[in-house]
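Structure, all two chains, one model.
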Amino acid sequence: MAGTLRKWLVSVALTGGAASACTEPALRGIAIDPPRAAPALAVTRDDGTAFDLARERGKVVLLFFGYTHCPDVCPTTLADWSKVRRALGADSARVRFVFVSVDPARDTPQLAQQYAAQFHASFIGLSPDTLDLPAIQYAFGVTSARETGTSATGYLVSHASQSFLVAPDGALRVMYSFGARVDDIVADVRQVLR
Amino acid sequence: MTMPPDHARVRRRTLALLLMAVSTSASAQRPATAPSVTVREAWARPCLLGTPCGVYVTLANGAATAVDVIAVTSPQATTVEMHETMLHGGQAHMMAHPTATIPPRGVLEGRPGKWHLMLGGVRRALVVGDSIALTFTVQHQDRARRRERIAAVAIVRAP
């Protein structure tokens, strides 16, 4: 009896996995399961218009929290997005690439936008108000901290290295560790756009 | 005065042998004078005026002893620091290092998310195709503590 039960459980596990794989391929990044509604993110852009994440329904939004004085992790992530955008071809018109500064003391909205646009003219750079930033970071579960005395070029900022994918239905669906493969991000974007 | 053909041939051969000897002697000396540290790869990303620029350089050490990189300078920047990115629990930190060691017959690899240079006070924005001149001062960890200067040029690549 116990043997039969074990066989049944193994069979369910195997066929269940196979069925799931047939219906929807697994996301390649770190799936946020169950997906949850993306937190509010409304920031005034450099040109005075508002960026409101809630108004981006129907598009995929890739989000990253960094700072313009970062010489490594931030430009690497945005350079990878640049490759993602290229690989997506025509589908890239349905994707927003959004860089959010966690260093509003130095990053004006203009600087944040200029910084993001170095990687592609369509990339969006935001610098939230200093007073709004903690609530935004808390809602997304990311943190940052100023680290003083480590650099001759001013302070450094430790910050979350992950990026997020918000699906067209406004759900926070996937998180990517720093250095995630471009192909994996492209595959996930295509999957959630279907 | 014309020389008999045989004499001319001997003279030419002697001259060739002399040249060969000088050349052999020069090449025999080359390993002692050539820098033991070489630049394998050097590149950077575009960067805005007023923001630090990340540069990735890979240095190879051909010597049997370790070599320390003790300084890096660039005429295009006020400061050049050696940094290492550390990831702890998904949080990115940067650590400045005053020196970096290239192991004996090994490499010090600069790459995103790891060891890199941070240029501060860059005199103008760097765009794709620009080149950045760098000078590394290295010191051998041998008894003589011999120092060398290594020149490198990093090219700004498209993102």
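The beta strands of chain B are 37-44, 53-61, 67-73, 79-88, 91-97, 100-102, 107-108, 115-120, 131-140, 147-156.
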